[in-house]
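User: Round two. Same drill as before: sequence, then structure, for each protein.

Assistant: Same drill it is. First protein:
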Amino acid sequence: MDTVSRLVVLSPDSPYSPSYLARAASALDLGIGIKQTCFGILLEGPEETVKKAVTTLRSIDPLHIYTKMRAFPLGDARRCRAQRGAARPGFYFLEREIDLLPLFSKALACAEASKEAPTIPERRAVPPCRFRKIMEETL
């Protein structure tokens, strides 16, 4: 069985806390590794079991709980701040992603309220002569 690690991240505007999420994951009693962090929890275990945990946890608050893959196992020395003495590589990017989550939550809430799939205009290539004209007008 393949072992996977996933981050389960709370949007800053979530009414839940990382400790609540950790307790909820622990209560599932799935025998997977759980580590609480400042932004949510890390889960590690067999892929199907972790998927089941993520599905259950996201159902608590689907507009404010997000997940993504983590490339390293829990406690990996290459990512452990305690052993590195500084923020782990990628932490500042993750921090920025988390700052943007309330925007995703609002967009999902709007989509859910309208019950309509957003329409995306068809993308077409701009003909070279039209592009040249646009460039000349802007310069």
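Second protein:
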Amino acid sequence: MSVKIVLIDGQGGRLGQQLAEAITAAALPCELLAVGTNSVATAAMLKGGARQGATGENPVLVACRDADVIVGPIGILSADSLLGEITPAMAVAVGQSKALKLLLPVGRCNNQVVGVGQYSMSELVKETVERLKALC
């Protein structure tokens, strides 16, 4: 049985694209679904190698129902983050999902995790893929 990974990103989708590229390159035995808060983010993640993609609030709600793992910036847990792209319903869907959440501590949305150092985007992507390898 394949692990269903839901990758959520917004704005320009650059983080999601880097994650999709790294997950695809790692050849993990998983189903990778890219869900963008806007069409630009979805397109970037598809360009990064995700085979399926959807855009908007309802796809986030639906995908979170049966995801095994949700991956994205920590802001996906906070309503109105990502410059307002994360709706309250999206944040609730992510938060209430039974999926394991691999949240990257990107501090651009006024969310900072105490005890976490400042890492480059590539370091965060590498660590995320290592954790996914352990799961898959």
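The longest strand covers residues 3-9.

User: Perfect.
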